């Protein structure tokens, strides 16, 4: 058993900096022997969340940064990512799986995060996302959440 | 395009172009832009109409990469061509299934199967 780990890091609006944070978290999960499926899910969700924060939240502004908080234990990993953007209303994001939206090249990031993580939550303003993955526990399919 | 910036290997089998991703991770924005430019060039500049995208090497891909694939599919359709995807590992296939893009794209299990369908 490894002891719990917590770190906080602030990065500029630069996707390569986001990649470095992603790599750090992925490495910590591998050390704790998270299943490959979990590592895949977390990497994918982090990529989507960080790109959203940097590109859509901060609009790549060099004056703005992204704050990341991460808690990792042997049972779960929780990551909070906050940008300095105006935020957004998740209900206004069009459903990318509808036939009329299927050919739109954008709008799939949030959906993927929801499908691969056990928890995805936005604050009221919509500029902070919390992601959680429980080791070895598959997320509920989207249909099950509505029940 | 400089060889160092090449992200996709191109092979011709009769009149079909097979484009095989070199990277394991199609994640970061810079790479995705380069991949997009190279793939779009196959249609826009080289006028290729039968294209297979081979995912054998790909272990990760993000929604930004999916966006490029959708744009490529549109370009190919506009040129009255056909795009097929093949050799997608299960984790990645799940990304296509969740986003229902498995309904938009023609996905074959292997390169051979994709070639047979043309």
UniProtKB/TrEMBL annotation, chain B:
State the signal peptide span: none
Q: Which Pfam families match?
A: STAS (PF01740)
Q: Please, which domain of life does this record's source organism belong to?
A: Bacteria
Q: Name one GO molecular function term.
A: anti-sigma factor antagonist activity
| The name this protein goes by in its record | Anti-sigma factor antagonist
STAS domain: residues covered: 27-118
Q: Which family does it belong to?
A: Belongs to the anti-sigma-factor antagonist family.
Q: Which organism is it from?
A: Gimesia maris
Q: Which InterPro entries match?
A: Anti-sigma_ant (IPR003658), STAS_dom (IPR002645), STAS_dom_sf (IPR036513)
Gene3D superfamilies for the chain: STAS domain
């Amino acid at each position: 058993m490894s002891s719990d780990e917590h770190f906080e890091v602030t990065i500029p609006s630069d996707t390569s900096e986001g990649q470095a944070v992603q790599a750090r978290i992925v490495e910590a999960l591998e050390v704790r022997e998270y299943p490959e499926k979990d590592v895949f899910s977390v990497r994918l969700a982090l990529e989507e969340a960080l790109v959203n924060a940097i590109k859509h939240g901060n609009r790549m502004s060099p004056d703005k940064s992204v704050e990341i908080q991460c808690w990792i234990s042997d049972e779960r990993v929780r990551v909070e990512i906050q940008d300095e953007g105006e935020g957004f209303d998740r209900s206004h994001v069009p459903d990318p799986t509808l036939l009329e939206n299927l050919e739109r090249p954008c709008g799939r990031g949030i959906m993927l995060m929801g499908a691969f993580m056990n928890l995805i939550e936005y604050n009221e303003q919509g500029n902070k996302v919390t992601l959680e993955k429980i080791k070895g526990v598959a997320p509920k399919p989207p249909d099950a959440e509505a029940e | 395009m400089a060889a160092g910036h090449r992200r996709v290997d191109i092979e011709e089998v009769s009149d079909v172009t097979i484009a095989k991703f070199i990277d394991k991770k199609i994640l970061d924005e810079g790479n995705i832009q380069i991949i997009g430019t190279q793939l779009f060039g196959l249609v826009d500049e080289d006028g290729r109409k039968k294209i297979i995208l081979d995912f054998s090497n790909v272990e990760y891909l993000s929604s930004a990469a999916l966006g490029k694939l959708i744009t490529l599919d549109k370009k190919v359709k506009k040129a009255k061509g056909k795009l097929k995807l093949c050799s997608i590992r299960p984790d990645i296939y799940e990304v296509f299934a969740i986003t229902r893009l498995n309904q938009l794209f023609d996905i074959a299990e292997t390169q051979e199967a994709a070639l047979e369908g043309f």
